[in-house]
Amino acid sequence: MQKFIEIQENKTALTERSLEIVLTKLQTALESRGTASIVLSGGSTPKALYEALSTQNLPWEKIHIFWGDERYVPPTHSDSNQLMARKAWLDRVNIPASNIHPMPTASGDPSADARQYETELREFFQISEGEFPVFDLVLLGMGDDGHTASLFPHTDALTVSDRVITVGNKDGQPRLTFTAATINKARCVLFIVAGENKRPALKEIFAPQADERMYPARLIQPLGVFWWLLDRSAAAEIETNDREHFISC
Ligand code: 6PG
Question: Which of 43, 16, 222 minimizes the C-alpha distance to 135?
């Protein structure tokens, strides 16, 4: 694992830097394999990044879009991560509809939809049962409580290690989510975290010891390149012996 912890002065700088990193990772994938697979996170933080990506002139026909988690709502619902990404980015670029792979949320059975997405991923990556897809880039956010994707504290989803996709639970509401095992197989994982409200959880995430069930983002320890991109406000209380990985801009 190559780990980088980079602190940017403010959200504008964070967006500019996250765009640079995403473009670099997409370029690397396209040069290596002629195609790129990027997994989107939801929430509000990545919206500015998605808007910036919509202005880029990229070979969209070679880029495939997936989601790392999704609220169990229709794609037209204001809570939908898919809707946010389409409005901010995907509806603004000439990307083939078949390159966009949203999580299904329409059957009324979250477990069945989780299995459906898993099947779609197996077919796309040409892998069999028991194997995990390897994505070029997984984007992640982190909640105030230290969750990431829809891996929420003290939920059953945290312990699922034999599935690609599972059903997360936020306050009794189902969500589809990548398992930590799937995220950790990625070639590159990029956390983008901003705001003072994330400070307490980040302190625990970077602490030498803390309970992973309480702070699920600690479960993310990818085999590939691991990037934490933070704004100064969120990072203010991080004490870590990872100094050699710190890039303070
Ligand atoms: C979601 C996300 C979730 C998000 C964090 C941070 O579906 O909400 O995938 O994991 O990244 O909750 O959200 P903000 O960026 O809005 O703080």
Answer: 222
Ligand 1 nearest atom to the CA of residue 45, by list position: 15
Angstrom CA distances, 46 to 19, 41, 49, 90, 183, stand at: 10, 7, 5, 13, 17
The model's pTM is: 0.96
Cβ(175)–Cβ(169) below 8 Å: yes
Residues having CB closer than 6 A to ligand 1 are 41-45, 69, 81, 141-143, 147-150
- Identify the CA nearest to 67 among candidates 146, 170, 178, 166: 178
Q: How far is CA 162 from the centre of its chain?
A: 19
Nearest CA to ligand 1 atom 9: 42
113-144 pLDDT, tens digit each:
999 999 999 999 999 999 999 999 999 999 99
